[in-house]
Design goal:
It holds the Pfam family MAPEG. The protein has about 120 residues and is mainly alpha-helical. It is built from five helices and two strands; from the N terminus they run ααααββα. It folds into two domains: about 1-45, no CATH class; about 45-125, no CATH class. It has helices at about 1-10, 30-45, 45-60, 60-80, 100-125, and strands at about 90-95, 95. The termini are far apart. The relative contact order is 0.14.
């Protein structure tokens, strides 16, 4: 995803350290903004995701791995859809139109439950 943002910086002529392109300077600023924002949306929950994966994986490694893969899958397709510039494409995988992002958050909830189970197990033992 970061590589795609780097390529978009070159394509839309947005130099570092500028985070967003200005509409007055660049006619493709909205497209760059969509790509940049898709990456930022995906990165917002990564610290929590990694912490939950490590702790939940200590007690439930297979469940955490499966739920973690689902979360990463939904983040990737959210980014790919957002990078098209059309907000409705954030919710599509190819031609299939459904709200898959909710499955990513449900996967994160499942990893939280694995982590809580690990914590309860530590307290009770």
């Amino acid at each position: 995803m970061a590589g795609q943002v780097g390529r978009a910086r070159k394509r839309y002529n947005v130099p570092y350290p500028t985070l967003y392109a200005a509409e007055s300077d660049n006619k493709d600023a909205k497209l760059f903004y969509c790509i940049q924002r898709g990456l930022q949306n995906s990165l917002e929950l990564m610290p929590i995701y990694f912490m939950l994966m490590v702790l939940g994986g200590l007690k439930h490694p297979c469940a955490s791995a499966g739920l973690g893969a689902l979360y990463v899958f939904t983040c990737f397709y959210y980014f790919e859809g957002n990078a098209t510039g059309d907000p409705q494409n954030r919710l599509k995988i190819g031609k299939i139109d459904f709200t898959y992002r909710k499955y990513g958050f449900l996967a994160l909830l499942g990893i939280m439950i694995c982590t809580i189970s690990f914590g309860v197990n530590l307290v009770l033992v």
